[in-house]
Design goal:
The complex is a heterodimer.
Chain A lengths: L7 E7 L3 E9 L5 E10 L2 H5 L7 H21 L3 E6 L1 H4 L4 H12 L3 E3 L2 H16 L8 E7 L4 E7 L2 E8 L3 H7 L7 H22 L7 E5 L1 H11 L6 E5 H12 L3 H8 L3 H20 L4 E5 L3 H9 L1 H25 L4 H22 L3 H13 L11 H11 L7 H12 L11 H4 L3 H20 L11 E5 L2 E6 L6 H10 L1 H7 L2 E6 L5
Parallel strand pairs in A: 1-4, 4-5, 6-9, 9-11, 13-14
Antiparallel strand pairs in A: 1-2, 2-3, 6-7, 7-8, 10-11, 12-13
Chain B lengths: L11 H17 L5 H31 L12 H33 L2 E4 L6 H15 L6 E2 L14 E9 L8 E6 L7 E4 L5 E5 H6 L9 E13 L13 H12 L4 E7 L4 H11 L6 E4 L8 H6 L25 H7 L2 E5 L5 H12 L3 E8 L8 H11 L3 E6 L7 H13 L3 E3 L6 E2 L2 E9 L2 E9 L11 E8 L2 H14 L12 E3 L2 H18 L5 E6 L5 H12 L3 E6 L16 E6 L4 E2 L2 E5 L6 E5 L5 H5 L1 E8 L2 H14 L6 E4 L5 E3 L10 H18 L16
Parallel strand pairs in B: 1-6, 8-9, 11-12, 12-13, 14-25, 17-22, 19-20, 20-21
Antiparallel strand pairs in B: 2-4, 3-4, 3-7, 5-6, 7-8, 10-17, 11-15, 15-16, 16-17, 18-25, 19-23, 21-26, 23-24, 24-25, 26-27
Helix pairs in contact in B: 1-2, 1-3, 2-3, 10-11, 11-12, 14-15
The chains are: A alpha/beta, B alpha/beta.
Chain lengths: 515, 706
């Protein structure tokens, strides 16, 4: 018998000077073990920060690299992955076409993430990497110099207090200070002046001088860490400030050609090394830190943490709770019948559970149903006539934490169809959804209509309901001998959509009283 | 100008010839069993063929291009060529004497006779006539040379007869020349009927005596054998072509017309005939080599290999199977418990084949990745297993090195088979030959992904594994697995080289790593700590590393080198290399492993490598060096290395003048390392087998019946 598949996952990061991928598995103890780390230099930043458009050549190289990465993923049978693109792609005019080309040639779905998301991922990786190290007293400056920009975050303990993204990327700096200004030394001096000019503006938004510790991330500084701090593999290395400064000084004397010869670097890596290390050292000098803590943490480590099943479910459930409480506070704002709302939500979930496997509902779908159930009646606040339409309007126009506009639109539609008309081609909000979204709305609305019918009189008569499948019927068994006439009547009219989309009848049955 | 100092370096070509001279010495050694002597004689010749095709050809090209730059030994190409030709001629002369004066008579005493045409009995002649009529004549293709016509195509290293003809009748045009290839598809030695023992005659002699019927209207007045050696070096331009395979195939065709580097001919060939050949084949005077002995002795290998005659061979040393593999357990389970080091050919190669086979057949294996440099082709069990793995839907990545010298034609067909089975076949890395020997198996296990790695110094070739000494490591250690993944991601072009934690890769890292290890010894010595270097390899050529070793010698470090072949380091020169000792072992097995031991202030480190210390290996090849970390194996590898320096039977010591002398007087009971290691391993394994594993048998209370 083959062993069961391990929890395998991959994180892909499309940066300014390279595309990288980590393939990892989740160990039994929940730790993450990186199996394969790939890196392919693709100069997207050079295009993005000079012409503003990704060149055909870069797009091709990126697709070729990702095809190779995909092969490695397939070797392990990785299905779970997240692929993100950062500043270079974000700032390019043809980023949509770029993502589409990748999707078509590799099947990989890449999302462009913004600065704050990048910082969140990086921070979570750094905190993980520093776990086990002695806690950092006071404030720490977290610095990552990329190709396009440098991300700085000031932490007080583990909490970010200030952060920002600054035009201190190594490729951007190279593009700004052309290396043909004369001798290498002269060029380095120009570069230093340029960096210090930018840093003086940084000080306005981040209190560099308050930092007691200096935590550095990024490929260039990792290289310095390896040279100064022995073999690869350690999650963090601590390099005394003086040693770091003198190393950077010695590296600055070398041209990229000399760096290639001396360290066996690739030429593009050698090109970014000097500008990047100069940024680190100049920032370091602004702080009171006596050592540089170089971590192997990366945006990919942050992604892997999110993807790890344990983390994923913890993060999800936290987010779900936040969204539901935001929905409830919206409900309270419109004076909803809280007990009815919760009752309908619970009934809807019971039915949802019965159908989940067959209909391949996922947890997002459950969430939409929960929110729609909670809020289906808030339109009553506006008026009872056609209140389902008011509910639609209020939900779609309200800002609910954690939900994207598109998701709100789906939920609003589900709420709209909790009574009266069935979804129709003539309903503008409905047809403006994508086809699969329309299907989803119909299914979730069908469940909601049934759940609502079961609490017809808003009396929460039906408690301890048991739901079971019997062939093509969904049988709801209600213990106790309450009179269910009204509910049966309501069901008869409200299960129309349910029969139509699921092809199943709903039967209400009283359970024999136990003695 | 000061008088010319003896160069700090020895010339690599002359050093190579000195190695081939040691091979010839083994053939000359009356203490070597007769058929083994014959084998060494054949190896000597085929080595020499390859040397001409590659090295001499390359020097000739340099001379032609006007390159006068001296090598590190101070010799310009033209001067090297001259020295090589005269030294090679001297050795070939020695080989010829050996063949006629010692080997042939000795073989005859054993009943193995290789007869001349005029020494055949009547019934043997009749047998040959019949044989000629039925099998040889149909495949002969005589080609007459026309005045002013193109010279016919002459294949490299094939045997031909040059024939001078005169017309039968008056009035016909004058004398003509013709060439006839001795059929390459037939055995070069024809077995003849004989009352006792075994009798043979050369196919070329059989053809020569029966040429009359081939040329109607002409009379054969003279027929002599010749053999041409051509420049073999593939010089491919891999710019702008992505179909490497097709390019290589066309490269193979091109090679057939390459320049002539040597023309061997039978002494006694008339000047007229020789001049005709020389002109037609564009051979310079210096490239002419006259000889008597068989111009192509390769068919004699068949006699050296023939069944029976055990008393004329080395006592057999059947490959040993380490007891750990005798348990009926999966090889993965065995490797998981600890590293395993194999020392071939003492240790059997079977576990390595088993490793790949198990990977192919195990349902939990996700991927097999391997480099294949020279294999036995489709007959190879490794290739068969890889094909099976690919057919079973596993991810199989094979890096095939097609430019392995002279083996290309054989490689191409099985590489296609692998591809058809669904394997991802990569035909080399542009600009770099992949010489590393590594296999990676990725397996899904209950507690996650586990990687198994085999690393070695020898090719995945079960045939050479019986005659080459090589070291292999089987490990499941995490760092090796991660590095191996990184290595394959790099050579498949999926990723840029990562920072390795265990492996050291050439190009880029290895040269610096080796220099760094030597420098560390120098630092240790200067700090008064214990320091020492012992290294074994096939060739030592790299000037930068040699200079670092000179510096180590200058720091008072004892440097012991076991260099089987070329050694450009000049040992034992005061003020340069007085602390360096170089030995070479040429014996029944071809010494092939590369092992380096660094004293490191009393915490010795042992490395094994696929690479020699030559510029081509360090700069233009993808190679791997790896440490032996597990203490027990480290001790064993070090002990076997140590034993290499104790040999006083088959070892030669390199002198400051570049000549080699026997290390010992070769008394009976002398230390012969290639037998000693076998003895040690047999004894060790027997010991393990005698000590049964502790088994825990629970004692249970006997049931009280009744």
């Amino acid at each position: 018998m083959p062993n069961p598949p391990a929890a395998l996952m991959a994180a892909i990061d499309i940066g300014a000077s390279a595309i990288r991928m980590d393939v990892a598995e989740v160990r039994e103890d929940g730790g993450i073990r990186v199996l394969d780390s790939l890196k392919k230099g693709v100069q997207l930043g050079k295009d993005a920060f000079t012409t503003g458009t990704l060149s055909e050549e870069s797009i091709r190289s990126a697709c070729a690299a990702l095809q190779d990465f995909k092969r490695v993923m397939d070797t392990y049978g990785v299905l779970r992955y997240r692929a993100v693109a950062t500043s270079a792609v974000r700032e390019s005019s043809n980023s949509d076409r770029f993502l589409d080309r990748i999707l078509m040639s590799t099947g990989l779905d890449v999302e462009i993430i913004d600065g704050p998301e990048e910082n969140r991922l990086t921070l979570s990786a750094v905190l993980e990497a520093l776990r086990g190290a002695p806690a950092l007293e006071g404030k720490s400056l977290l610095v990552e110099v990329g190709g396009g920009s440098a991300d700085l975050t000031l932490l007080a303990g583990q909490e970010p207090v200030q952060s920002g993204t600054f035009p201190l990327g190594s490729i951007r700096l190279r593009a700004g200070v052309r290396p043909d200004v004369g001798t290498h030394d002269k060029w380095v001096r120009y570069l230093a002046r340029q960096i210090s000019n930018i840093i003086s503006t940084v000080k306005g938004s981040i209190a560099l001088a308050e930092a007691d510790h200096f935590i550095a991330l990024g490929g260039d500084v990792r290289f310095a860490g390896r040279i100064l701090g022995g073999p690869a593999g350690a999650a963090c290395r601590s390099i005394p400030r003086a040693a770091f400064e003198s190393f950077v000084e010695s590296v600055c004397k070398l041209t990229p050609e000399a760096l290639v010869r001396k360290y066996g670097l690739s030429y593009p890596d050698a090109e970014t090394l000097v500008p990047a290390l100069m940024v680190y050292v100049q920032l370091l000098r602004q702080t009171a830190a006596q050592e540089v803590i170089i971590t192997e943490a990366s945006i990919r480590a942050g992604i892997l943490q999110d993807l790890a099943p344990a983390e994923e479910s913890a993060r999800r459930s936290k987010l779900t709770q936040q969204i539901l409480s935001a929905a409830r506070s919206l409900g309270r704002k419109y004076q909803y019948d809280e007990e009815h709302a919760e009752r309908v939500r619970a009934l809807a979930e019971l039915i949802f559970d019965q159908l989940q496997a067959e209909q391949r509902f996922d947890e997002n779908h459950r969430l939409y149903l929960q929110v729609a159930s909670l809020l289906h009646d808030i339109g009553l606040f506006v008026g009872s006539r056609a209140h389902h339409k008011h509910s639609y309007y209020l939900i779609s126009q309200s800002d609910i934490f954690g939900l994207r506009p598109r998701e709100r639109e789906i939920i609003a539609n589900v709420a709209r169809y909790h009574r009266r008309a069935l979804p129709q081609r003539t309903h503008l909000p409905f047809v403006s959804l994508e086809r699969d979204e329309r299907t989803l709305v119909s299914k979730l609305a069908a469940i909601l209509r049934v759940a609502n019918a079961l609490d017809r009189e808003h009396l929460q008569k039906i408690r301890d309901l048991r739901v079971a499948r019997e062939g093509d019927q969904i049988v709801l068994t209600v213990p106790g001998a309450a009179d269910l006439t009204m509910e049966r009547l309501a069901l008869a009219t409200r299960s129309d959509l349910f029969r139509e989309v699921f092809g199943k009848r709903i039967i209400l049955r009283e359970a024999p009283q136990s003695v | 100008m000061s008088p010319r100092r003896p160069a700090e370096f020895l010339n690599r070509e002359l050093s190579w010839l000195a190695f081939n001279a040691r091979v010839l010495e083994e053939a000359e050694d009356a203490g070597t069993p007769l058929l083994e002597r014959l084998r060494f004689y054949c190896i000597f010749h085929s080595n020499l063929d390859e040397f001409f095709m590659v090295r001499v050809a390359s020097l000739m090209r340099k001379v032609e291009e006007g390159d006068r730059r001296p090598d590190p030994a101070g010799l310009p190409p033209a001067e090297q060529l001259e020295l090589i030709r005269s030294r090679a001629a001297e050795l070939a002369g020695r080989a010829e004497n050996l063949y006629y004066n010692e080997l042939l008579p000795a073989l005859a005493r054993e009943g193995i006779r290789i007869l001349e045409a005029d020494g055949l009995a009547a019934e043997q002649k009749a047998y040959l006539d019949d044989c000629f009529e039925r099998e040889i004549f149909p495949v002969l293709t005589p080609v007459a040379l026309r005045e002013g016509g193109a010279f016919p195509y002459i294949a490299g290293l094939a045997l031909y007869l040059a024939v001078r003809l005169v017309p039968d009748s008056e009035g016909e045009p004058g004398a003509r020349l013709a060439v006839v290839q001795v059929p390459a598809g037939l055995p070069g030695l024809v077995r003849l009927p004989a009352a006792d023992g075994r009798s043979y005659c050369w196919l070329s002699d059989a053809v020569r005596g029966r040429l009359a019927g081939l040329f109607r209207g002409y009379r054969v007045v003279e027929a002599g054998a010749f053999r041409l050696t051509r420049d073999s070096e593939l010089e491919l331009d891999d710019e702008g072509s992505d179909d490497y395979l097709r390019m290589l195939e066309s490269g193979l065709k091109q090679r057939k017309r390459a320049r002539s580097v040597r023309l061997q001919y039978e002494r006694g060939l008339s000047p007229h005939l020789l001049a005709g050949l020389q002109q037609g084949l564009e051979v310079e005077d210096r490239a002419l080599v006259a000889g008597r002995g068989p111009l192509d002795p390769r068919p004699l290998m068949g006699i050296a290999d023939m069944a029976g005659f055990g008393h004329l061979r080395f006592a057999p040393q059947p490959p040993l199977r380490p007891p750990v593999f005798e348990q009926r357990r999966s090889i993965f389970e065995i490797i998981r418990e600890g590293d395993i080091v194999l020392h071939h050919p003492y240790d059997s190669f079977e576990p390595v084949i088993d490793f790949i086979r198990s990977a192919a057949d195990d349902p939990d294996v996700l991927a097999v990745k391997q480099t294949l440099y020279r294999t036995s082709g489709l007959a190879s069990p490794v290739v068969a297993a890889l094909i099976r793995a690919a057919e079973a839907g596993k991810q199989v990545t094979v890096l095939v090195e097609l430019t392995a010298r002279f083996d290309e034609e054989r490689n191409i067909s099985w590489a296609r088979h692998l591809e058809e089975a669904g394997a991802h076949v990569i035909y080399g890395v542009a600009g770099l030959k992949v010489h590393a020997k590594i296999a990676l198996v990725v397996r899904r296990e209950a507690d996650g992904i586990r990687r198994y790695v085999h690393l070695g110094t020898g090719n995945y070739n079960e045939r050479t594994a019986r005659v080459y000494t090589d070291i292999g490591l089987l490990t499941a250690a995490e760092e090796f697995g991660a590095d191996a993944s990184g290595f394959f991601n790099t050579i498949t072009g999926y990723s840029e080289p990562p920072a390795f934690s265990r492996l050291v890769m050439a190009p880029h890292q290895m040269r610096q790593a080796v220099l760094g290890l030597i420098r560390r010894e120098i630092d240790r010595a200067r700090a008064g700590q214990s320091a020492g270097i012992a290294a074994k390899m096939n060739s030592l050529v790299d000037p930068e590393i040699i200079e670092e070793l000179y510096r180590a010698s200058g720091a008072g470090i004892r440097v012991r080198l076991n260099v089987r072949g070329i050694c450009c380091l000049r040992p034992g020169v005061r003020g340069l290399s007085e602390n360096i000792r170089v030995v070479s072992i040429v014996d029944r097995y071809l010494e092939h492993s590369r092992v380096f031991l660094f004293d490191n202030g009393g915490a010795p480190e042992v490395y094994v490598s696929s690479a020699d210390w030559m510029p081509r290996n360090l700069d233009r090849r993808i190679e791997l060096m790896f440490p032996i970390l597990q203490e027990d194996w480290k001790r064993r590898v070090a002990a076997h290395l140590e034993a290499q320096f104790r040999d006083d039977c088959k070892a030669r010591v390199l002198g400051a003048d570049g000549t080699y002398e026997r290390a010992g007087a070769r008394r009976p009971g002398a230390f012969r390392v290639q037998e000693e290691i076998y003895r040690r391993l047999s004894a060790e394994y027997d010991e393990v087998r005698r000590t049964p594993p502790v088994r825990f048998v629970p004692l249970e209370r006997k049931e009280n019946k009744g």
